[in-house]
Amino acid sequence: MAPNLMNIVELNRVDITKLTIDAIVNAANTSLLGGGGVDGAIHRAAGPELLTECRRLNGCATGQAKITTAYQLPANYIIHAVGPVWCGGQHNEANLLASCYRECLTLTTQYKIKSIAFPAISCRIYRFPADLAANIVRQEIEIFLACEPMLDKIVLSCFNSDVFNAYDKIFK
To answer: How many CB atoms lie within 10 A of CB 56?
Structure first.
């Protein structure tokens, strides 16, 4: 890992809804109206105002991201990123996942966000292979930081042990 990446990226198993950070990323579905996994946890923790704001956003396409206020969360913003469902890798899944991370990172520049926490987008419910996802995440972070070195902290929150281990191998 490049020295600047080692100083910025933190890999852990923390509950993303508890982080005091500028922005957390929600692994959302296309409706943005809540769901299972981290999406449901974020909606429950943020409170009903989040659902009201998300309704006004009219959904989000796979590979894209939209930003809202974080309401009752200790973060300032929630960036809702819609990752792809893994269908064997022949349906542009890798590019769509990379796009999710690029979109989120671009929003950090637009909103002057200095710290961000990502869940392992698409790795659990959407079955994206964790090792492939980790490689994509690392590449997108490295490319972004080479052009926009304004982030002070990137947390990769991998709640599941298998996903954490896959990310740990790539980010060591």
So the answer is: 8
pLDDT in tens for each of the 172 residues of the chain?
444 677 899 999 999 999 999 999 999 999 999 998 999 999 999 999 999 999 999 999 999 999 999 999 999 999 999 999 999 999 999 999 999 999 999 999 999 999 999 999 999 889 999 999 999 999 999 999 999 888 999 999 998 899 999 999 998 8
Exposure string of 82-100, with b = 16+ CB inside 10 Å and e = fewer, is bbbebeeeeeebbebbbbb
Based on the structure, what is the number of domains in the chain?
Answer: 1
- Residue keyed to tokens 């990446």: 5
Domain of 88, CATH number, reads: 3.40.220.10
Question: Cα 30 to the chain's mean position, in Å?
Answer: 14
CA-nearest of 129, 119, 101, 115 to 158 is 119
Q: Which of 99, 72, 96, 71 is nearest to 84 (CA)?
A: 96
> Contacts for 135-138 with beta carbons within 8 Å, 24 or more apart?
135/170, 136/94, 136/97, 136/98, 136/101, 137/101, 137/167, 137/170, 138/1, 138/5, 138/170, 138/171
- Give the structural domain span for 113: 3-171
